[in-house]
Amino acid sequence: MPIQPGQPLDALDTPQLVIDLDVVDANVRRLFAAAKQRGVAVRTHFKSLKCAGLARHIASLGGENFLCAKLSEAEVLADAGLSDLLIANQVVGPQKMGRLAELARRVRLRACVDHPENVEQLSRAMRTAGATLGVLVEVDIGMARCGVEPGEPALQLARRIQDSPGLRFDGIQAYDGHLQMLPDAAERREKCLQGLRQVLATRKLIESAGIPVAVVTGAGTGTWEFVAGFEGVTEIQPGSFVLMDCAYHAVRPEFGCALSILASVCSVRPRWYVLDAGSKAISKDFGMPVIKGRPEEKVTRLSEEHTKVEAEPVAVRLGERREVLPAHCCATMNLHRQCVAVRRGVVEACWPIEASGRYD
Amino acid sequence: MPIQPGQPLDALDTPQLVIDLDVVDANVRRLFAAAKQRGVAVRTHFKSLKCAGLARHIASLGGENFLCAKLSEAEVLADAGLSDLLIANQVVGPQKMGRLAELARRVRLRACVDHPENVEQLSRAMRTAGATLGVLVEVDIGMARCGVEPGEPALQLARRIQDSPGLRFDGIQAYDGHLQMLPDAAERREKCLQGLRQVLATRKLIESAGIPVAVVTGAGTGTWEFVAGFEGVTEIQPGSFVLMDCAYHAVRPEFGCALSILASVCSVRPRWYVLDAGSKAISKDFGMPVIKGRPEEKVTRLSEEHTKVEAEPVAVRLGERREVLPAHCCATMNLHRQCVAVRRGVVEACWPIEASGRYD
Questions:
Q1: Contact A192, A198 (CB under 8 A)
Q2: Which pTM value belongs to this model?
Q3: Inter-chain CB proximity A145 and B69 less than 8 Å
C-alpha cells in the first residue's frame, strides 16, 4: 500500500528513511539568513539530497540554486523545474556531450574544468549543438584530487576557455573537502583561510589579465562560515547542513539531525538487540550510527541488514521501533529509492530519490 | 539511449556496472559441480545479486533455489518465476505479515525465527490467510547477532513451531558469517567445524524429541567446502562466489572476479589520476578496490564520486577507461539500479537491479 500524507509514522513498515521537515526548515533558514547577512549567495549541494521533492522544498524556502556532483543529478533537477545549476566536477567523455549540450539549452548551466583537452571537447560539443556552457576553472587548494594548481595554471586554463567558442568563462571553483570534518574549529578556520588566500590571489591574477571573474564558489557545511562574507567570494556550496548526520553534528552542533532510519527490533538477546536495517540502508563510511534519544544504547556492529545494539539492561520488546541517526547523510540518501517527509510524526509526503544509484 | 545487446563495452558511458558472464559461468559451474559431488544442495544467496536477470541466469545453470535476506528480495525472485525461496532472517512486524502470507501462497517459502512472539505472529498471519509457511530455527553458532543458542533453546522453539497452525517446522539455519573472511584457511576450517558440531548436536536433540529435521542449511563463500559433504548438512548457501570481489578473491582465489565498474579518467595530475566513480558506486566497506590488470596503479582514495589512483609514471590520457574491481560485491550491487552483462567485451544484456535500495 503506498504511503499517504496524514499517516502516523508508527503505521509505516520498516526500514523507512525519514526526513523531519521541521528540522530541515530550521537548518535551511539558519544558514540562508546568515549567508544573506554576509552578502554571499548559497548554492545547496544536491549530492547530499538526491531527491527532487526535497530540492523543491528548499527552493520554496528561497534556495533555488543548486550544485550537482554529476550530470545525471543536474538532469533530475532540471526535470524538477530548477534552472540555475552548477556541476561541481569535470564532465568528460563523448557519451555525455550531447546530454550536456541539451541541458545547457534548457537551464542556466555551468561545469568545472581542469584540463585543456576537456575544454576542447566541451567547446566542440556546444558549438555543434548551438549551446553555451558557463565554465569554472577548478583550483586545487589542498584536497589533492581534481583541479589545477592556483595561480598561473588557472590563468592559462581561463584564457583557453575564453578563447573557446560555445564556452563562457565564469570564474573559479575551489572546494576545501579535506577540511570539512576537522574537529578543531580554530585549525579548520586557519587552513580554510590559507586556501582562500590562494583562491583570491588567483582571482586577481586572472582579472589583471583582463578576464572578468563573475563567480568564486566553494566551502561546505564544515567551513561555510569562514568563507561567507570573505571579500571576493560570491557563493558558498554546502549540502549536508540540510539533513545533517551524527558525524557532522559533532562539528556543527547548531544544525539539527533531520535524517533517520526508522527500524524495528527483530531479535532480542540478553545483552543486545538487533534492528532490521544495516549498512545497506545506513551508510557506515563515516562511522557508526547512533540510536536517537537513547544514549545508553550503543551500536556495536553494522552488518548488511542488521544493526546490533548493546545495552545494560536490554529493555526492548520484539517489534519495538528505534530511530537510527546515520553518520553520513549523503551516502545514506544514496542507499534508498524513496524517503518519507514528516512533521511531528505525521507523514507530509513520500518522495522518490530520483538520483540515488545514478553516477553518470 | 538504452544499452543494447551487441554493443561493444567501449561504446558505453561511464560509470557502468559490468558483469562478465564467462567468469560467472565458470564460478557457478565450479561450485555447483563440487556440491553435487559431495551430495549437498546449493541455495544461492540473492543478497549478493539483487538482480532478477542474474538470478534467472543462475537458474539456467541449474541453481533454481535462492536464499534472500529480506522479504522484498523474495518478492522480486517470485516475480521472476523462481519458486523455492528461503528468507535467511526473521520477518517481524504487522505490516509485513500480509505480504509474507501472500508470498507463501505463491511459492515454496521458508523463513527463520529466533523468538516465540515471532512464531505467534507468523502463525496468526498464516492462519488468517489460509497459508502455510516453512520455518527454520536460526541457531547462533558464534556470529553473536540473531538466533537462539544451540541445544535446548533451539528444541524449545522447534516444539513451539510444530504446535503452531499455519507453520511447518522444517529445520535449522546456522550461518557462520563471522568466519567467511578469516585469511588463515586452517583456522577458518577449525572454527567452522566447531560450529557445525553444535548444529548437528542440536539436530540430534530435536530429532530425539520426535521432531523431524528436513533441512540443515548454512555456510558462505568462505566456508562452503568445509560444510559441503558434512553428514547431516543438507544445503549450503553461498552468494559471493557468483560475482566475487577483490577481498573475497584473496580468500578464495579459485573463483574469478566477474564484477567491475567501468570508469573514465576525468582528471590527470603529475603523480595521480582520478576516475569518475567513487564510493557511491564502489562500496568501500571491505576496503579499497583495485584497478584490473594494472598492479602498478594503486587506489589511494575513494571519495563519493572519485577514485584517486597513484602511479609512477602516470601514463593515462583524459577519458581513458579503467575497470575497477570492488572489495565487496554485495554492497556494490546494492549501489546501482542496473548492470550490463557482457561476454568478451560485448553486451549480452542490460538488467535492472530490482532489489537494490530495498530493505523491507
A1: no
A2: 0.97
A3: no
